[in-house]
Specification:
two-stranded antiparallel ribbon; alpha+beta
Length: 404
Amino acid sequence: MELSRQHPPPAVLRPIHGDAHAMLAERSPWHVIWAVGGLCWLVVTGTAVLWMMPTAGTMMDGMYIITNRARTAQHLLVFLAAAPAYRLAIALGWPAALGAGARVAVINTLLALGVVYLAPVATALAAGLIDGHIRDMWDTLDAWRTLGASWIFWVSPLRFFLPPYILGLFAIALVLTARRHHREALRAADLASAYAAARMAMLSAQLQPHFLFNALHAVSTLIEDSPRQAATMLARLGDFLRHALESSHWPWVDLATELAGLEAYLAIQQTRFSDRLSISIDASPESLGAYVPSLLLQPLAENAIQHGRNEGGPTLHVRVTAAVVAERLLIVVNNSSPQLPGDLSPADYGHGLSNVKLRLHAAYGDDARLTIGPDRQGGTSAWLDLPVRRSAGAALTEAAAAAS
């Protein structure tokens, strides 16, 4: 029985998303305010400059129209005034309770009007300090000191600065909400991945004592009748347990590693039953790199030997094959003993097969199938139909999705 050399087990698997959502959590809302809010105001500034370009720097109806440079500075000053208002609005949030929501709506309205009210100051400073129209600056500031007693005072600021303020606030809120949902999705994926790994580890831990009990019982029957055979079997049992302990650190291994462990297990059975058992393993090269749950095949091989062997009967042939067909990993464990009239119902599975069924569901959800029944080419087979996973990281991600 030959098999390609055992692949080393994959590196220790770390949480997939931990670093990502930790980095997201470290960023304060100020980053979003300056980036997203600033981008919105930049677009508004460019639009205003293009719109007012024909009249920039001229007098219209006795009113000075500031230049493009001054208009850019004007919008920058208003944005600097809007940034703290944005931060306060974000801190307030939007409570679900009707009364609290109404209070927040009133506060947000006052914040918006406060920013709009400061816009004439920005206009005056831009006209005086950049365009050199000092008199126009003082005239505007004198009108501003009256707290806008005339409604005409509010028309222009509301028209030019309320829409960009609201646009910036909505854009910032949208980005922050998307970040929060993304962070929550990453945390949920981490939890699902941890759950899937813990579930598979628990089921694997249940499997090992079951096999160990059976193996030690077999050794005990050989000690008196064939001490040399018992010693060989104990040595091979040690090889298998070493492999099992190493594999227990990784919920997923490539198929080459899994088949190497299966080979160690079958060597124990070969020692136990000698020429009454014939074993072969045949795996296509493309299947050896696919990842599967560790110790998945051992209970299937154990079941094939335990239920296929007939004392005093012909030699039992156990054959394991693996191939990739249409991005599906197909594994068959066949024995030469026709024992079943039809497919075995999951309700009739024993401990080992039930464990395999549970591990498949934990690893793949509904995207994996286990079928046990008579083989048209003879004997009884266990068929595994699995999605191909080309890396341990991809396997963990898919397992997390299946668990969620």
